[in-house]
Design brief:
Helices cover 68% and strands 0% of the residues. With 512 residues, it is an all-alpha fold. It folds into three domains: 207 residues, no CATH class; 119 residues, no CATH class; 122 residues, no CATH class. The model has no long low-confidence stretch (mean pLDDT 91).
Amino acid sequence: MADTSGRWRAPALEAAVAFGAMGLFLALCPSIHVSPMLRIGAISGLASLQLRFAMIVLPLIIALIVTARVRNGAWFALTSRLACAAFAGLASAFIAGGVLVALRGTPYCLNAHNGDSGMLAVWANAFTNHNPADYPPPYYPPLFPHVLHWYMDLVDKPALYALKDLEIGITALIGPLAYLAWRLLLRPGWALGIGVVAALVIIEPYKPYEGLSLVLLVPLMIHFVQTLRHADDRTIQQLAKCGVAYGLGFGVLCLTYSGWFKWSAPGFVAAAACLVPWRGGRWKASALVGGIALFVFVAVVWSYFSDIHTYTKIANIGIGGKPLVQDTYVYFDVLVDPGYFAMWKGDLPGGYTPDWPPWGELAGVGLYPLLLFLGFGTAIALGRKRTMVITLACVLVGTWLMRFYYAHYVYETKLVQLYPRTSIELAYGFALMAGFAIYYVVEYFARKTPDGPLRSSSTVIGAMCTLAFVLGTAGSAISDRYMPANTAPRNLGWLSWAAHEATIAKTPPDPP
């Protein structure tokens, strides 16, 4: 029997480095002593985060330069691989460190007793006190409320204090987990440059589990469709193992946040139908792995869906057959042009302002959306037969159409049905497609000049230097939005400000 330990040694080392860099950065953050309630304190905190980021990044860049001079290319390959993993850990750790700074001096989570934080605390306390009257509604994905309940019991903290730890911890994990998920499909540099950079677009520390589930769902869908496409190359035992793994993965992500499944389903099914090899009986292997995955998925989410079905039978009595979840919450993005998705302001309450979105340079369309659309077309032009492009393009088109389908009923039904949240998936998906466009362009010219500069160590070092500035400035920008000194209407700084105000008012930690 062949020894497979070597095959997993390098990926395991990458994972260890990614999580290690994340942990090291977070370990350096508590020494930042500022008052984030003052703007000068927030500025000092952001600058301190940048210095800690540089303390870890600069040695990695130096290591790349040194190993590039060694004649044995294996050393440079290993160093660049581990540097990519470390950068992935630092990318989200910077944002988590920003939340740490924003909440310095308060034990409360973002938004304290208010909004979704307060509801999560009520649900977690209900599990602890075995009070079914306050359990989450059946249609709410149950995994995170249970995780909060388990964690608060483990560390013996009130729910709103424990939620702060989870907000910071899950935010920090997004970078390493996104990198490892995309490493199933891409080489290290591209997993960082495409998967992790695109994930920054949707990181939301207030409810990080929602973004994390989407970040992991997209590469999982692509990998699953890729397996369906080439299923006849594997043994029955391998197909069975794959089916179980996919079913568990999809099931856990659905229990974390099921909304992405609703928007992604049409395009995902279409992509799978297009790529399954139907001729010559080859579809049977695809049907086997797909059937096993579906069976395991249903088994994992059965209780969740059963509760929804029971609730449906009760809730539909006397309401004229309206949808189960009647979302009437008209917040800021509900009144924004539904064709705009490039930046999502969140679902905090606030009045609509007609100056948003900003007027773009080309018939109202800004430069960033134009670049995303150009990337979408370029990726299709250069990789329209690739599984990654076909799957992601189908999912994006399906999400786009469902967005307008629900939005066009708002006037008639007065139901929002969460359609603005498709902005998150569209922003993430189009950023990925733009990354794929760059990937295929580089691949094209690299094939044309196999001994050219695109395959040199200098290109790798230059790309890593570029990504260092991208990740550092993006992390600072996202962190700045959550600083309590930023309390303009609908600003995310209001969330950390509420936590500090709860501490100043000596509000009891448990919701009433």
